[in-house]
């Protein structure tokens, strides 16, 4: 299962870029490092070439390259201006632009001085923070990129979905590889749970040592470049302790899907002796912990989900939950293990809902909780995620909160083993893998 150097398709994102092609907003692709942003720019450039845009009208710069190490905002402006062809529309692609200080001034000037269409990537939410927003307010569109979905994972490894009908009339889905070999979907899903969805894994293959080396590289780059180095560049000295940073990362990775607060993180680190001099007075303040957590959210390694009180119709300020952007990264941090698989499945569902364009919250109803409320302009869905729906106790636990919600929106329980019943009083029970593979 190797892959060649041809860029694999990421149509979900490419179609969004194409939809905004030649429109005024600056296209900003954000997401954790190595989730495929650079490849997406290459795919967009290929699309332009395929549709007749001459190569000389395309300017492509990757600021991770040594060539641009000392470039300033003025240098960037002069470089691009020199390449612009008078009377022709230019297509400008800037990869990891956050490495150039005051880059937004150059980008704003391009918009004013050139006939151009601009595409940017960045591995830190800081890119789109206040200073930037004031420069380009309302004039940029953000495309949030994530690691591979399960559907994309199958595609990257060359699997195709086949549906077969048995002589008894039942249908089942299987995966078929390039050699015609058949696999159970569960087997491929288990590989996805193990290795995660970082696109680079497709290049090294599903082999644990190599995959871990790749994930180690991604993790180190995110922590060093996007968190520790950036703090220095911003002249802020809040995040100075790499040991504390790693401890907080391990804590959040270990507690995906559990309600936590900055205060509880600091206390746990001290109580479990995870911080040197583990005494109450050495505990990091909630304020310090929150600064570290914010940096992790800004570098897209963790995402925070707020809780929503369904009856009170308001977001609750306390105790959100955190999910990790890639399960492979979590396995790299914590080791491969079978515990807490329920939370791992929740993690996968959460990011799939984001890919599908939903806003996601955790639902609170009385003293019970609903894993996710997913909503967009047109619909709302209440979702519970569990490993299996075959035991009576589990069914009761998962269905009760949904039964308390008194509106007519769709309610679903997703599980790897839904049992035979497809519906309980209007609440649908679906197979999680099938759900992930429905477009």
Please, could you describe this protein's structure?
The mean pLDDT is 90. The chain is built from 16 helices and 17 strands. The two termini are 24 Å apart. The chain is an alpha/beta fold and 439 residues long. Among the domains are: 134 residues, 3-Layer(aba) Sandwich (Rossmann fold), CATH 3.40.50.300; 55 residues, no CATH class; 102 residues, Trna Endonuclease, Chain: A, domain 1 (3-Layer(aba) Sandwich). Helix 1 crosses helix 2, helix 3 runs parallel beside helix 4 and helix 7 packs across helix 13. A hairpin with a 5-residue loop joins strand 6 and strand 7.
Outline:
The protein is of the alpha/beta class and 439 residues long.
Q: Give the averaged pLDDT, no decimals.
A: 90
Second rung of CATH, namely the architecture of the domain at 11-144: 3-Layer(aba) Sandwich
Tell me the major beta sheet.
9 strands, mixed
Number of DSSP strand runs = 17
> Widest sheet: strand order?
9-11-10-12-13-14-15-17-16
Q: What name goes with the CATH superfamily of the domain at 11-144?
A: P-loop containing nucleotide triphosphate hydrolases
Q: Which term fits the overall shape?
A: globular
Content-based structural category = alpha/beta
Write out key terms for the chains shown.
439 residues; Trna Endonuclease, Chain: A, domain 1; nine-stranded mixed beta sheet; alpha/beta; Rossmann fold; five-stranded parallel beta sheet
């Amino acid at each position: 299962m190797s892959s060649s150097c041809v860029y694999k398709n990421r149509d979900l994102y490419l179609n969004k870029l194409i939809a905004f092609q030649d429109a005024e907003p600056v296209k900003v692709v954000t997401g954790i490092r190595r989730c495929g942003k650079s490849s997406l720019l290459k795919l967009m450039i290929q699309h332009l070439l395929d549709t007749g845009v001459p190569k000389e009208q395309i300017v492509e710069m990757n600021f991770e390259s040594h060539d641009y190490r000392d470039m300033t905002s003025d240098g960037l402006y002069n470089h691009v201006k020199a390449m612009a062809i008078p009377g022709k529309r230019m297509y400008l692609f800037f990869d990891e632009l956050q490495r150039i200080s005051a880059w937004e001034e150059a980008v704003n000037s391009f918009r004013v001085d050139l006939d151009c269409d601009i595409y940017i990537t960045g591995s830190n939410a800081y890119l789109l923070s206040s200073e930037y927003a004031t420069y380009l307010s309302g004039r940029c569109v953000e495309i949030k990129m994530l690691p591979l979905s399960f559907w994309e994972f199958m595609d990257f490894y060359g699997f195709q979905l086949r549906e077969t009908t048995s002589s008894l009339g039942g249908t089942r889905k299987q995966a078929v590889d390039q050699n015609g070999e058949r696999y159970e979907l569960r087997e491929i899903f288990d590989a996805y749970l193990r290795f995660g969805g970082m696109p680079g894994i497709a290049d090294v293959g599903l082999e644990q040592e190599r995959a871990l080396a790749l994930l180690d590289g991604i993790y180190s780059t995110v922590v060093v470049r996007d968190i520790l180095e950036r703090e220095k560049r911003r002249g802020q000295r809040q995040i100075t302790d790499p040991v504390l940073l790693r401890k907080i990362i391990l804590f959040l990775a270990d507690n995906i899907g559990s309600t936590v607060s900055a205060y509880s993180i600091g206390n746990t680190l001290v109580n479990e002796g995870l911080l040197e001099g583990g005494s109450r007075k050495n505990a990091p303040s909630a304020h310090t912990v929150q600064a570290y957590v914010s940096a992790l959210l800004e570098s897209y390694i963790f995402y925070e989900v707020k809780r929503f009180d369904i009856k009170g119709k308001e977001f609750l300020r306390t105790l959100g939950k955190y999910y990790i952007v890639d399960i492979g990264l979590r396995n790299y941090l914590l080791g491969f293990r079978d515990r807490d698989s329920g939370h791992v499945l929740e993690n996968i569902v959460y990011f799939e809902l984001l890919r599908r364009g939903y806003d996601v919250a955790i639902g609170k109803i009385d003293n019970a909780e609903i894993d996710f409320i997913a909503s967009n302009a047109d619909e709302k869905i209440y979702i519970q995620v569990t490993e299996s729906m075959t035991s009576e106790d589990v069914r009761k636990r998962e269905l009760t909160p949904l039964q308390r919600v008194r509106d007519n929106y769709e309610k679903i329980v997703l599980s790897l083993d839904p049992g035979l019943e497809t519906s309980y009083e209007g609440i649908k029970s679906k197979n999680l893998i099938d759900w992930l593979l429905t477009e």
